[in-house]
């Protein structure tokens, strides 16, 4: 089983080098191309032939439309017969759980996955990102608020989904995945909170996501536990950090705006 934490495609505000935060910035034409490339990549051999059973996204359009492109690529692959619904579920191996899996049919959009609210700096140029803060900015979101949102998403959505997918009988060779599409700053918070549930000490490396880059965790399917407390015992590996192989030549030329929204 795989977990992907994905940043949205390039936006018009990324191009203009403006802080977007909770501003509902649209994908640029290049961002739409990036999202389509990501969707095609994830279901390809280079992307490990993933079958996504759950797709979550922020409800801001840049993330929701990136997630939509991922869903569209998978749905088209199924419609064209390149992916088989029957191939996903295997025989119950005696774990007592008869849950069957299906490829995702929709994107679950959640406000909890939004980017940080920059308050008075919404729309400001990147050059002001680290300038002294105003004395009073009631709209600016605190780190504590983002941590609370991340934990709410983990407890209400992601951790139960991880357990359900991990416990379901899956055909040998099927490579199932859960995708979360969000924003550069919030993904750092979410990843840090997620790693606290895993068996090793939290990874202290700071991950920076480029547009449509993703952090890839893979869990060992041989170990089965029945609830989210078992995550602390699940062996896993980090398959990639800020994976952007689907962008090829864009990585150097077009992705220098990493990683503010």
UniProtKB/TrEMBL annotation:
<keyword id="KW-0812">Transmembrane</keyword>
<feature type="binding site">
    <location>
        <begin position="7"/>
        <end position="14"/>
    </location>
    <ligand>
        <name>substrate</name>
    </ligand>
</feature>
<keyword id="KW-1133">Transmembrane helix</keyword>
<feature type="transmembrane region" description="Helical">
    <location>
        <begin position="172"/>
        <end position="190"/>
    </location>
</feature>
<dbReference type="InterPro" id="IPR029033">
    <property type="entry name" value="His_PPase_superfam"/>
</dbReference>
<dbReference type="InterPro" id="IPR051695">
    <property type="entry name" value="Phosphoglycerate_Mutase"/>
</dbReference>
<dbReference type="InterPro" id="IPR001345">
    <property type="entry name" value="PG/BPGM_mutase_AS"/>
</dbReference>
<dbReference type="Pfam" id="PF00300">
    <property type="entry name" value="His_Phos_1"/>
</dbReference>
<dbReference type="InterPro" id="IPR013078">
    <property type="entry name" value="His_Pase_superF_clade-1"/>
</dbReference>
<dbReference type="GO" id="GO:0045820">
    <property type="term" value="P:negative regulation of glycolytic process"/>
</dbReference>
<dbReference type="GO" id="GO:0043456">
    <property type="term" value="P:regulation of pentose-phosphate shunt"/>
</dbReference>
<protein>
    <submittedName>
        <fullName>Phosphoglycerate mutase-like protein</fullName>
    </submittedName>
</protein>
<keyword id="KW-0472">Membrane</keyword>
<feature type="binding site">
    <location>
        <position position="62"/>
    </location>
    <ligand>
        <name>substrate</name>
    </ligand>
</feature>
<dbReference type="GO" id="GO:0005829">
    <property type="term" value="C:cytosol"/>
</dbReference>
<keyword id="KW-0378">Hydrolase</keyword>
<dbReference type="GO" id="GO:0004331">
    <property type="term" value="F:fructose-2,6-bisphosphate 2-phosphatase activity"/>
</dbReference>
